[in-house]
Amino acid sequence: MKKTLYLLALLVLLGTTAFAQKKSKKDYLVTIATPQGTIRLVLFEDTPKHRENFLKLVKQKFYDGTTFHRVIKDFMIQGGDPNSKDSDPSNDGAGGPEATIPAEILPHHQHIYGALAAARMGDQMNPKRESSGSQFYLVENHEGVPFLNGQYTVYGQVIDGLSVIDKIAELPKDYRDRPTQDIKMTVTAKKLSKKKITKLYGYRYE
């Protein structure tokens, strides 16, 4: 009797594990609308803390009205700071939620063209390399920026609108690398089947 109960418990455990490991057939398509055009991206499932935080902020409309406040051609464009909503450009880059996100730095997520990564404080103040609660950047260099691999959490990938990143990076800017015109964004997320995302944008899930 005890042996039978043990086997039943083991089968239930294995079934639960298999169910937990089963990947979802749907995903969120994130859309960033800007005056220069629309950027669409997906968030990686194996960086769950960053994914959950980003989607939470999108749902709260946190990013709406924020700007890409730091752009460097052949490098990246950075945004997501709530300070960029006000009329004082000097505080852009210094804001965001007080809580940071634990690093989810994975070797197979690299800084390729269009990668979405989390901004953070430097190693001296932030030895655990925890991410900003809201600020992010999109890699604009077409060859990628491999020297950042292993140092910042990459948690998504642009799958449509790469040329929009280039347009933003080419805009006139001041000595702080802030565009001289506000590049405001509106960010939304819609759940679609992975098959549809692949059909529409050519992105293939592993």
UniProtKB/TrEMBL annotation:
<dbReference type="InterPro" id="IPR002130">
    <property type="entry name" value="Cyclophilin-type_PPIase_dom"/>
</dbReference>
<comment type="function">
    <text>PPIases accelerate the folding of proteins. It catalyzes the cis-trans isomerization of proline imidic peptide bonds in oligopeptides.</text>
</comment>
<protein>
    <recommendedName>
        <fullName>Peptidyl-prolyl cis-trans isomerase</fullName>
        <ecNumber>5.2.1.8</ecNumber>
    </recommendedName>
</protein>
<dbReference type="InterPro" id="IPR020892">
    <property type="entry name" value="Cyclophilin-type_PPIase_CS"/>
</dbReference>
<dbReference type="GO" id="GO:0016853">
    <property type="term" value="F:isomerase activity"/>
</dbReference>
<keyword id="KW-0413">Isomerase</keyword>
<dbReference type="Pfam" id="PF00160">
    <property type="entry name" value="Pro_isomerase"/>
</dbReference>
<dbReference type="InterPro" id="IPR029000">
    <property type="entry name" value="Cyclophilin-like_dom_sf"/>
</dbReference>
<feature type="signal peptide">
    <location>
        <begin position="1"/>
        <end position="20"/>
    </location>
</feature>
<keyword id="KW-0697">Rotamase</keyword>
<dbReference type="InterPro" id="IPR044666">
    <property type="entry name" value="Cyclophilin_A-like"/>
</dbReference>
<comment type="similarity">
    <text>Belongs to the cyclophilin-type PPIase family.</text>
</comment>
<feature type="region of interest" description="Disordered">
    <location>
        <begin position="79"/>
        <end position="101"/>
    </location>
</feature>
<feature type="domain" description="PPIase cyclophilin-type">
    <location>
        <begin position="34"/>
        <end position="190"/>
    </location>
</feature>
<keyword id="KW-0732">Signal</keyword>
